[in-house]
Automatic annotation (TrEMBL):
InterPro entries in alphabetical order: DHS-like_NAD/FAD-binding_dom, NAD-dep_sirtuin_deacylases, Sirtuin, Sirtuin_cat_small_dom_sf, Sirtuin_class_III, Ssirtuin_cat_dom
Organism: Mangrovicoccus algicola
Chain residues that bind substrate: Y53, R56
Entry comment, domain topic: 2 residues (Tyr-53 and Arg-56) present in a large hydrophobic pocket are probably involved in substrate specificity. They are important for desuccinylation activity, but dispensable for deacetylation activity.
Organism lineage string: Bacteria, Pseudomonadati, Pseudomonadota, Alphaproteobacteria, Rhodobacterales
Function: NAD-dependent lysine deacetylase and desuccinylase that specifically removes acetyl and succinyl groups on target proteins. Modulates the activities of several proteins which are inactive in their acylated form.
The protein's name: NAD-dependent protein deacylase
Length: 225
């Protein structure tokens, strides 16, 4: 079981050019969360939701891991089996930097899912609702992401990892989305040390023993070194 559990958010990928959600020009200033990141929004206008995720997938493909992603991959390589990354990010920059022990608790842009049978497969660049499922042939394709009101992935494994953690580190997240924002409390309750690395104080900074402020590409390599 991993001694060090690391939670990451949109702030980790910000310096790779992938917009965050809540910063001044963030995604939620340009799209209504209710329209593009809820099952109800998808039912109302699947084409709008697909356009939103197809655009983010294209941005992801054009982006590259930054020094913070690479530092975390180095840490995992230096300490095999000791590091577990839990990310709220749906991009694949952790894996492209070389990290392997990664749980995407809110899903992945790189995957499509069948809303009828649950099958998942690599997402085409331009996903369409009518795309047929390779398993059941249903035309019920959706992005394999966790929308608001849906149950996040890996929750049981995440809580188990937090029970065994000696150190919990949070990087680039505003602490406004649950249950991700409550994981620091779960870690602290289990006796782990808690460290926050973020550009600015978050909604849950008070739950951390230590908070270091600054850009991830500076704070993370310095912490790993
Ligand atoms: C809005 C909020 C109030 N609503 C919720 O939290 C809801 C409802 C809710 C549940 N429990 C609650 C309790 C209280 C209140 C509300 C709730 N939660 C849910 O619906 C969740 C499902 C939520 C998942 C939604 N899907 C996403 N993403 C996938 C899609 C997509 O990506 O489109 S959420 C999405 O938004 C969140 C964005 O947050 P951040 O990543 O933190 O990004 P943000 O822009 O906010 O902040 C960026 C931070 O980085 C910093 N930064 C910026 N640049 C840098 C930089 N360069 N370096 C360092 N830091 C930097 C900034 O300072 C800032 O602090 C991420 O989680 C991201 O994945 N499901 C659920 O609860 O199921 C039941 C349950 C309950 C308990 C236990 C188990 C199950």
């Amino acid at each position: 079981m991993a001694r060090i559990v690391i939670l990451t958010g949109a702030g980790l990928s910000a310096e790779s050019g992938l917009g965050t959600f809540r910063d001044k020009d963030g995604l939620w200033t340009r799209y209504a969360l209710e329209d593009v990141a809820t099952p109800e929004g998808f039912a109302r206008d699947p084409a709008l939701v697909m356009a939103f995720y197809n655009a983010r997938r294209a941005n992801m493909v054009a982006a590259a891991p930054n020094a913070a992603h690479r530092a975390l991959a180095r840490l995992e390589a230096a300490r095999p089996g000791e590091i577990r990354i839990i990310t709220q990010n749906v991009d694949d920059l952790h894996e492209r930097a070389g990290s392997r022990a990664v749980w995407h608790m809110h899903g992945e842009l790189a995957r499509a899912r069948c809303a009828a049978c649950g099958a998942v497969w690599p997402a085409p660049a331009q996903m369409r609702p009518a795309d047929a499922c390779p398993d059941c042939a249903a035309a019920a394709t959706r992005p394999d992401v966790v929308w608001f009101g849906e149950y996040p992935y890996h929750m049981e494994a995440i809580w188990e990892a937090l029970r065994a953690a000696e150190l919990f580190v949070s990087i680039g997240t505003s602490g406004q989305v649950f249950p991700a924002a409550a994981l620091v409390q779960d870690a602290a309750r289990a006796g782990a040390e808690t460290l926050e690395l973020n550009l600015e104080p978050s909604e849950v900074s008070r739950d951390f023993e230590e908070t270091r402020l600054g850009p991830a590409t500076e704070l993370v390599p310095a912490w790993v070194a």
